[in-house]
Design goal:
It contains nine helices and eleven strands. It is of the alpha/beta class and about 270 residues long. The structure holds S-adenosyl-L-homocysteine.
Length: about 270
């Protein structure tokens, strides 16, 4: 990795990206770590991580990405999980600001992309209100990573002309969603955090008009060596998740594009 960094630092246009310039005042970098495969990290993310004084990370960041954090950096586990919070969101926001005020270069390392269901917006606002410079480095979001890793195109000219990223979990628990708008043909639905309420999701979509036979993919630990892809339909979703004991993180892709998944990939398990 050091070699890559030294080669890149010779390129003028990239020089401003991270630690080629010393940070005089503290700054916060909201960095997308991608869905797990370390090679899906952006060069800018790699640079920001390599130059961090403090890294505040969440549970979705994969071990190979964590291994890139310099030994000299202080690592703080923000432990985001719906049931167990090591730090609550207010504490994380304040921690970022406090660390930056001490003059540190603070990397807030988040799974996927910081602005897709990652609360990056809240953290950025908090930094801005405190007068702290906050940079954002995008990451490959789970939908995009999982789709590529399972050979499911999210859009297709004949099958899906739009794609919706939807959360299956809200602050209150069950999703409060305008189901009618989701139950449309020729679009792909991607549910993040949809595992817990998967039975409700499929029932509501069928109730609002999507065919029970609509193909569904469950992608567990997408892009990682232990990735599992399960293929079924809306009516078999709950049974599929239960029978295969699917665990978080898992993503649901719903729509006819699922039928195009790469059947050559032998890790994909077909289920009725
Ligand atoms: N900011 C993240 C999403 C955070 S919400 C992003 O852009 O990807 C957390 C949810 O993302 C998980 O519950 C799961 O639905 C999904 N997710 C994240 N990484 C995943 C992975 N490697 N495989 C499958 N789903 C994943």
């Amino acid at each position: 990795m050091q070699n890559i960094l030294s080669v890149l630092s010779q390129h003028e246009p990239l020089q401003h990206a991270a630690c080629t310039q010393p940070v005089t005042a503290g700054e916060v970098w909201l960095v997308g770590a991608g869905p797990g495969d370390v090679e899906l990290l952006t060069i800018k993310a790699l640079r920001a991580i390599s130059c961090a004084d403090v890294v505040v990370f969440d549970r979705l960041v994969s071990a190979p990405v964590m291994a890139l954090i310099p030994e000299t950096a202080l690592q703080i586990d923000a432990g985001k999980s719906t049931r167990h919070h090591t730090l609550d969101q207010g504490e994380i926001n304040q921690l970022l600001v406090d660390m930056a005020r001490l003059g540190h270069k603070v990397v807030r390392l988040k799974g996927g992309d910081p602005f897709i269901f990652g609360r990056g917006g809240e953290e950025m606002q908090h930094c801005q209100q405190a007068g702290i410079i906050c940079h954002v480095v995008p990451g490959i979001t789970a939908a995009v990573g999982c789709a590529a890793a399972s050979g499911i195109p999210l859009t297709h000219r004949d099958i899906a002309q739009s794609v919706r990223f939807v959360t299956g979990h809200t602050r209150q628990g069950e999703p409060d969603i305008y189901w009618q708008g989701l139950a449309e043909t020729k679009q792909t639905l991607v549910f993040y955090m949809g595992l817990t309420h998967n039975a409700t999701l499929s029932q509501k979509l069928i109730h609002h008009g999507l065919a029970a036979s609509t193909p569904v993919a469950i992608i567990e630990r997408g892009t990682q060596p232990t990735q599992r892809v399960l293929i079924g339909t809306l009516s078999t979703l709950a049974m599929l998740a239960e029978r295969h004991a699917v665990a978080s993180p898992a993503l649901l892709i719903i729509g006819h594009v699922v039928g195009l998944h790469s059947s050559m990939q032998n890790h994909i398990q077909q289920a009725g």
